[in-house]
Amino acid sequence: MCRIAGIIDHQANISQLRKEVKAMCDIMAHGGPDGEGYCSDEANGLAFGHRRLALIDLSSNGHQPMSYNSDHLTITFNGEIYNFLELKKDLVEAGFDFSSHSDTEVILAAYHHWGVASFNLLKGMFAFGLYDQLKNKTFLVRDPSGIKPLHYYNESGKLVFASEVKAFKKANILLSELPEWKVYFLAFGHIPEPYTTLAEVKMLQKGSYLCWNHESHQAEIKHYHRQNLIPYIKDFEVAKQCLRDTLKRAVKRHLISDSPIGVFLSGGIDSSLITLMADETINETSDQQTLKTLSVNFTEQEFSEQPYQKLIADQTNSNHSEYLINQSIFNQYLPVALSGMDQPTIDGINSWFVNYFAKAKGLKAVLSGIGGDELFGGYPSFKRMRMVRYLAKLPQFILKKGILFRKAALKRSYYLSYRNTTGKYLFLRGIYTPDEIAEILNLSINKIDDVLTTMTISEVPAHLSPIEEAGWLESNLYMQNQLLHDTDAMSMQHGVEVRLPFLDQDLIQLLNYTSPDIKYQLQKPKGFMVDAFMSILPEAIWNRRKMGFTFPFQRWLRRNEFFLRGISDDSPKIARLKADFINGDLHWAKAITLFLMEDLKWKA
To answer: Alpha helices, DSSP H only, in 135-268?
Structure first.
């Protein structure tokens, strides 16, 4: 896990490009505290930069940017390749030599051997820039699950890329604020891909690569990720065994590290299972290691899952650390957490705190249970999607009347009048409704409708069943745009790598070809997963009301003077919303959007 940046501009002075790339990397130094490196090619006006967080091959042999094949291939890489040892074995048998133990060198050798087809062979989380001097091309590549971010600027024959949006402001390029970003943020609670707050900076689509031709100075984006087509698994016992075997391999892969690694243990089903399987793996492979786990709790008992955390920690006999957050600690660090955001979001504060404590425990990498709810039906949307489809068939004029309701869930029925994926998602998870957004931004509701109905966003495949559609929305919109982005941005503020075994590509492929009737058993929470691991997962963990990992934001933010001062009183509408929040009549997520919306750091 690192931070990367690069500029390609054939008309620019190479020393100036190196200075700009260094400035881009410097502003992202928190994500790569263990070293920095730069390289350039004057002939093509190319400069690459890298900030290193060393986890595999801690020696100087893992230094980046890294070159290969007599320096004809150069890479700056962020992420982890979990199957690099298997790929390396194949490449050694094919006659390739290696000078390091790093996964970075394997990417270069794999590309040299298989070309762009190698991208689909990589299993892990990754974003990299790869310069092929012989073919005179540069590739920007992002992993199939979109775990690692890769932003790019492609204007006027110039290509700029970086792990974080803030880095682009250090390059000598013309940037402007995206006019629609506040509409997106007030509706979604985040900026959905491919958009950012900057009009000229976009996120590269997951499972894709951008190919830059150094002769034509043009870019082409292609989707490289392909899954093998196999029949559905319809036998329940076979499916359970496949899930057990595949998740076990995934956890084992994700534990590969030459630096201290642990597990976030919230006490829910997902993190508990990952903890149990990680402990099992460590016990099988090492006589000396003890699993390291950490949990965060609150003085407010209604938010605490401490008894469940203790149950799993005791069962694994792990080296467990528990951290308690109260109002005072929250107040102390909230300004720092908010300043760490790379893009506005309602959901990054909790990630900042848990990674702060992971670093305090001395960990450089942690496993997380993100993905379990999306893959196994853990959200209310899985039960609501059939109703959503029925409602969406109502005449548009009736759905638009929903805006007249006072209750937020009913007001959001207006979104279903859009008749598209955006509308369904915002009905389920929207923050403000179009009339509220229009009043906050002093725009017409027709303008808000136009922005949200014409935005570029992937559409749900038409053949999906209601429950599969819910899974698609939660994975490709909520998890993709909010959870993964926030986890990466906030963990990197502390130089901590978060690994996600549930997003292992072999596991995702297995679940894609497991019958929905098996995969989504909703009689009990995440029934398929629970049934498969019933022998190790205590009933007390799964047979209870889902809490989710959240902070007492409603209480703490209302008592936080820094936060309240940050919400403007200039607009009558915002002043009323602020008063509602102080009185307990406005949800904390809506208050956070008001606070972040006016932050000057989003400006170009």
So the answer is: 181-188, 236-254
